[in-house]
UniProtKB/TrEMBL annotation:
Spans traversing the lipid bilayer: none
Binding site for substrate: R119, G120, G121, F122, I123, T124, Y125, H126, S186, I187, G188, G199, M200, A201
Protein name, entry field: lipoyl(octanoyl) transferase
Species, as recorded: Desulfatirhabdium butyrativorans
A Pfam cross-reference name: LplA-B_cat
PROSITE patterns per UniProt: BPL_LPL_CATALYTIC, LIPB
Domain BPL/LPL catalytic: 74-216
Length: 216
């Protein structure tokens, strides 16, 4: 197999010098005990991160014709992307522009784009101060179903918040993580040929004002 290293992919994908380290997860979190690489991308425009996810999916499916995977399979069963986005609204499959409460032209004047996506869920906002984690993984290798992946990501957010003394919980009617009646973490997943991507967003010190511009 051709030697594969993060720098080769980074240069090919146009990423800006992310950190590349190995992490681990457990069955109680989101899969069997194993090591999973993850990339710290810092702040990255949503559109660029979206392209990167699709590129990783293509590599996992061995659909690239550029030589990166020509001599053998992609050497990992998945990658976790950790980042935050500049202000952006994204549209999910269940809810789009009809849930937007402000004029799109005004948003454009503020420099806030609206991006259509294939993920599940409704329209949502991403911005600075929000922790984003995008698992791009083969579900079979992770050993979970889509529902279990979503539940696992919710559990990750709940455990992180508990370490800060914040008691969060799930909502039986709506996916995501809640503190009382207020949503603090959201999840949207899409699956292509057994590979899941998109992921979770946890509000840490996010300006929540833009959330008032969409219907809850």
């Amino acid at each position: 197999m051709k030697e594969w290293h993060p720098g080769a992919f980074r240069n090919h994908a146009g990423c800006a010098e992310p950190s590349w380290v190995e992490g681990s997860t457990t069955k109680e979190d989101i899969g069997g005990m194993t090591s999973w690489p993850w990339m710290d991308l810092g702040r990255m425009a949503y559109e660029k991160a979206h392209v990167l996810q699709h590129r990783l999916v293509a590599l996992l499916l061995q659909e690239c014709g550029d030589g990166l995977s020509a001599d053998g399979p992609f050497p990992f069963d998945g990658v976790f992307l950790v980042l935050e986005h500049p202000p952006v609204f994204t549209l999910g499959k269940r809810g789009g522009r009809e849930f937007l409460c402000v004029d799109e032209a005004w948003l454009a004047e503020q420099g806030i784009p609206i991006v259509e996506t294939e993920r599940g869920g409704f329209i949502t906002y991403h911005g600075p101060g929000q922790l984003i984690v995008y698992p791009v993984v083969r579900l079979r290798s992770l050993g979970v179903s889509v529902a279990e992946l979503v539940s696992g990501l919710e559990e990750v957010m709940i455990r992180v918040l508990s370490q800060w003394g914040i008691e969060a919980c799930r909502n039986d009617r709506n996916r995501g993580v809640w503190v009382g009646s207020r949503k603090i973490g959201s999840i949207g997943i899409h699956v292509r040929k057994g590979i899941a991507f998109h992921g979770m967003a946890l509000n840490v010190n996010t300006d929540l004002t833009p959330f008032t511009w969409i219907e809850p």
